Amino acid sequence: MIKLIKIFNIELEINYSLIPIIILGIFFGFIKEFAIVFTIVTLHELAHSLVSNFYGYEAKTIELFALGGVVRSEEISFIHPKEVINISISGPLLNFLFFFLGIITKNILLLEMPLLDFFNYANLSLGLFNLMPIIPLDGGRILRAYLCNSMDIKRATYTTVFVGKVLCMIIFVIGIILTIESIRGITLIVFAVYLYFKNEKEKEIVSLQHIQKVFSKPKGLNEKINVKVKYIIAYKESSLKDILKDLSIGYYCIIRVLNNRGKFIGELTEGEILDAVIKYDSLTTLGELLNNKDAKYLRR
């Protein structure tokens, strides 16, 4: 990572993957166009950073790499979806603002300015591209935040990932069709593959975040006087891994266990589930855990 400068106390860094792009730009004589794109992407990410800081999520670094840029900041809470939407949409809105300013400037000057045309095209393209509902693009984060108004973050992420996968496949097919006529179609194929795997990776990230929040929940519960209770009905063959996915962040969960005939055979608290995850294998079933629990009480 190459550190450049600090802008509003936010570190601007260049990933090593960007160096070959710079070299190719110089070699083929596109250094001016590269400088324009570099500036536009930096300002796009800076817009995200400043709005993020406004809402209290400290943006620490902006990293630019071969396929775009990313802001490294404190974890953004999805408790307030409107904040997430405003942070995510700020980058594309800045691009559209630059696009309209560029169009106005061209109409006022009435001159042929290829670099200004490229500036306008780059801003419009970057703004529209980032609004596609594919994580990690801004559009994907906006869609997920909107869905968080009616469902939990995990379900919202899984739904958004599904939409993103479908769009990536469509872009991939379009890229193949365009490649038959022009080599430029390869760019779409590369972006489709990259976005597909980044989009899919988000499911693993949100699952890990969910588990971390569940394990840190007891500390938060100690600070509350009244706690909402959620009952989960599960069969004895269900594993700890299965139940862990269903534990909700805002509730204290109690698991009521049924046998194969649907008869109630026992009850486990969320605390017992979390203790068991640490002590036993995650594939341990609820039936086995109930048996261990009964044996422990018999020994007493």
From TrEMBL:
- What are its cofactors? Zn(2+)
- GO BP annotation list: proteolysis
The protein's matches in CDD domains, at most eight in alphabetical order, are given as:
S2P-M50_SpoIVFB
What subcellular compartments does it reside in? Membrane
Transmembrane residues, as ranges? 21-42, 84-106, 118-135, 156-176
What cellular-component terms does GO give this entry?
A: membrane
Q: Does the keyword Hydrolase apply?
A: yes
List the GO molecular function terms.
metal ion binding; metallopeptidase activity
Instruction: Give the record's membrane topology.
Output: Multi-pass membrane protein
Q: Per its record, how is this protein called by name?
A: Stage IV sporulation protein FB
